[in-house]
Amino acid sequence: MYFPFLRGRQFELLALRELLENDLIGDNIIPIIEPVRLSSSLLKTVELFNKKNHKLVFVQNPSVGAYPVSMDGDKQDENPLYGKLKIELDKVNVIKAYIFQDNNEIVVSDMKDRIAIIDSVDDISSYLEACKNEKPLYTIIPDRRSIKRNVKGDKIILEDSFIKQKRNVDYKNNTDEFFSDWHREYIEEGYSGFSDYSIVGSEYSESGFAPIAVAIHIVYLSSDDDLRVHHFVSEHNINNRDIAGKFGEAVSELKHWCIENKIQETKGLKAFYDYCDKGRFPGLGVVKKCSIMHHLELMSKRLGETK
């Protein structure tokens, strides 16, 4: 079972909806959304998962972003979106999750049929208190013995598999690297599933900026069934001008390399091919969306849920 951990930003949510609308992720893929703001896109995403009868994990007390503050800075109950979202979150396909951290208030006393998320040994005591009557459906943890031995019941391993660089141009120093092997090792290691932050990484930032280089990250399965990630980086990176031209350089390299290496095609990968053929730049947000879509569809195929 794969639990991709995504922040509820626009293009992460769009990636999930497009995959779900096209039936490209199977039941072995249960996304985790940590909402960063209350938005119509977040509501639409949860609505679609309920409509499609597909499981979704929703973090009730996110550790990053502006949620539960509304888009206009008002409290949740003053925004009509929240009332609609609350109805959707109470439906059977949504599994509520809670992060146990010192700076995160836990507002639940019974964890039955819910998911706990632990990152540190220091969070164990509050976790055990909340779970003293009923164990959670799953507990999501890092692969640390000091945490694992204190957690009872089914566990999910969460690992940040993406090695994030400070600058996009730095990916040129190591264009192909190991990503993960948890998809084949998690059961043997005593876990009920595995989780990662896809090609985004765990680091969260509210602000964006025009990059000097454009980088596209494509996850693929190697001949020995490892997940690896290949970085495609633009060539002419003197300043932050001509982002569209730099995308053209990166996506052209992507298409050539993926075809030459017979990388399994997905809807996300085909979209990159199409942008390359048409000489079109869809925007950096769409680039991230397509990379996430490719990763999740690839995992669904690897886990045997979609053809």
Can you walk through the features of this model?
- With 307 residues, the chain is of the alpha/beta class.
- Helices cover 32% and strands 17% of the residues.
- The protein has 9 helices and 11 strands.
- The protein has an 8-stranded parallel sheet with strand order 1-2-3-4-5-6-7-9. It has a 3-stranded antiparallel sheet with strand order 8-11-10.
- Helix 7 packs across helix 8.
- The chain is globular and about 60 Å long.
Topology:
Elements: E1 5-7, H1 10-21, E2 32-34, H2 40-51, E3 56-59, H3 80-89, E4 94-100, E5 115-118, H4 124-130, E6 138-141, H5 145-148, E7 155-158, E8 176-180, H6 182-185, E9 193-195, E10 215-221, E11 227-233, H7 243-260, H8 267-278, H9 284-302
Parallel strand pairs: 1-2, 2-3, 3-4, 4-5, 5-6, 6-7, 7-9
Antiparallel strand pairs: 8-11, 10-11
Helix pairs in contact: 1-2, 1-9, 2-3, 7-8, 8-9
Write out key terms for the chains shown.
alpha/beta; 8-stranded parallel β-sheet; 9 helices; 307 residues; 3-stranded antiparallel β-sheet
Largest sheet: 8 strands, parallel
Radius of gyration over C-alpha positions, nearest whole angstrom:
20 Å
Helix content: 25-40%
| Shape type | globular
Unreliable stretches = 69-74
State the separation between the terminal residues, measured CA to CA: 17 Å
* SSE sequence, one letter per element: EHEHEHEEHEHEEHEEEHHH
